[in-house]
Amino acid sequence: MSTADLAAAGRRAARAASWRRLSALGRAELLLLGRNRGAVLTALLVPLALPFSVRPVIDQPGLKGQGLDAGTLMLTAATGFSFLFAVYTPLVSAFVARREELVLKRLRTGEPADAEILAGTALPALCLGLAQALVLATACAVLLDAGAPKAPYLTLLGLLLGLLLSAALAALTSAVTRTTESAQVTALPLVLVSMLGSGIALPTSVLPDRVASVCAFLPLSPAVRLVRAGWTGELGAAQATGTILVALAWTAVAVFAVRRWFRWEPRR
Q1: For position 96, what pLDDT does the model report?
Q2: How many CA atoms lie within 13 A of 159 on its CB side?
């Protein structure tokens, strides 16, 4: 066997071992999540229930005059709430709890790399958020006559970028969170800002132009905009490219910040 073949076999073995470690961490985290009934109920029910709370805003005649239908807006709201309450909020608590219980510190003394530890912890929440968003999208398309997406690749890309950014922001927020009890408080600013400014609870079209232009650069705004644009086809090629670049920039900044400031040991 040549040197190149040996190197390729080594890389395959390394990838297989990494996947086994990631799967084991994900299964363990899923078991811990299942034991926390409060977190499970929040992750499952809140993204399903909250979109109905914004129905009065959606039914305003002004929005219908702008070509925004209830199905598309409810779908966008439901997806955004999945980012916030199925991924971001529970992961802030999960990262803090594992840190304060010294789980993260013990894992770092073993084989898993830092990225594998973080990804394994986030994996159940990411899968839950993805499944929830897909179910809600199907329900809105069928029950609210949202129809089929005009650019499904934009919706899928926005969904994936939103999930990844939500997990990275959760890891970053955990760095400034001292206890699991305070996790709900430290997560609240991003939740409120995103709900009001990123087009989740309130369509950005109802905001003043200057405010809307600023809100377009909030962390989750590009992902939410891509999800909606995939259904409506409202973005041209240049606009879609710019929105994707903003989302990628936020993701890169969040990942860099996590690598720089994430805490692996309890705060004292």
Answers
A1: 92
A2: 27
Virtual torsion, Cα 129, 133, 136, 142, nearest 10 deg: -150
CA 231 to chain centre: 19
- Calculate Rg over the CA atoms of the chain: 20
The three-state secondary structure class of 219 is coil
Containing 216, the helix (H) or strand (E) segment is: none
**Residues lower than pLDDT 50 in the chain:** 65
Rounded distance, CA 53 to CA 1, Å? Answer: 64
DSSP, res 206: G
pLDDT computed for residue 131 by the predictor:
84
Q: Which two tokens stand for residue 184?
A: 């709900």
Q: Is 185 exposed, middle or buried (0-12, 13-18, 19+ CB in 10 A)?
A: exposed
- At 255 the pLDDT is 92
How far apart (Å, rounded) are the C-alpha atoms in residues 253 and 168? Answer: 9
Largest CA distance in the chain: 72
Task: Kindly report the pTM of this predicted structure.
Answer: 0.85
* Dihedral sign from CA coordinates of 122, 173, 187, 35: positive
**Which of 99, 83, 82, 253 has the alpha carbon at shortest distance from 176?**
99
Q: Cα–Cα distance between 225 and 174 in angstroms, integer?
A: 26
pLDDT at 17: 65
Query: How confident is the model at residue 34, as a pLDDT?
Result: 62
Separation CA 225–CA 47 (nearest Å)? 18
